[in-house]
């Protein structure tokens, strides 16, 4: 990694969520010269980031108790979308008037999801993150590809660009509805199919799997257009091209969650398409089938976690 100059004004930053995305953002924000706290459920002894064959230690602080948190300038919310309410304690303590919360989550309803959990005066910045990254062990993050954060164009985008000067590229977007659906598209096939099959991204080199991906996305594109997004065949082609560029041993966040026995994020990915289709009266048989299968897997995962917790107690 090339050296990064110190930012003109170092900021106090909190990153909520110690998974792959949270670890990546925390490490790179620290490398840019900011004062970074990583807010996690379980204490960590260190944070390392592996990228381009290089492993670096990030000297961030770790926090496990929301009650001890104090307000910061910037918050990055990187928990799974379904865990947003669980982060409410952190958000209430970390935010004050003028704090910016950048929401690095999947789905298409970032602001509505976070607004009930932050104090008045907090600025919410929805974002989509194009990155392939894996948490290989607690506090160990491996970056495969991608580094772009797309946000609505405006003053907050300018401020975020000035904030993130190390390894992350901020892309201001004028049509953010389309941007949200374009990001959702990157997950609509990779997440369900890798998780259900428990295989990595190399599966998309198979012509049959590529054809299935195209059909899943074409179905969703009809829904997206009804929702006001400018989505067409070029977006489907872009996703297939992107899948081809990801290393075969790369994976998806939903695959990593299943392998780790964690609940899945299907309701905010596949479920978002199915619910939008229902609102618009548009059939979504392929995405509906995937959602049914994912719900079945998720029930099994949750039951196993409950059984494990019961045994521990």
What would you note in describing this structure?
This protein is an alpha/beta fold. Helix content is 42%, strand content 21%. The protein has eleven helices and ten strands. The protein has helices spanning 20-31, 88-94, 110-114, 155-163, 176-188, 190-197, 207-226, 233-245, 253-259, 270-280, 285-312, and strands spanning 12-16, 35-39, 47-51, 54-58, 61-63, 74-77, 100-104, 123-137, 140-152, 169-173. Strands 1, 2, 3, 4, 5, 6, 7, 8, 9 and 10 form a ten-stranded mixed sheet that branches. Helix 1 (20-31) links the parallel strand 1 and strand 2. Helix 7 (207-226) packs across helix 10 (270-280). The longest helix has 28 residues, at 285-312. The radius of gyration is 19 Å and the shape is globular. The chain starts with 11 loop residues before the first strand and ends with a helix.
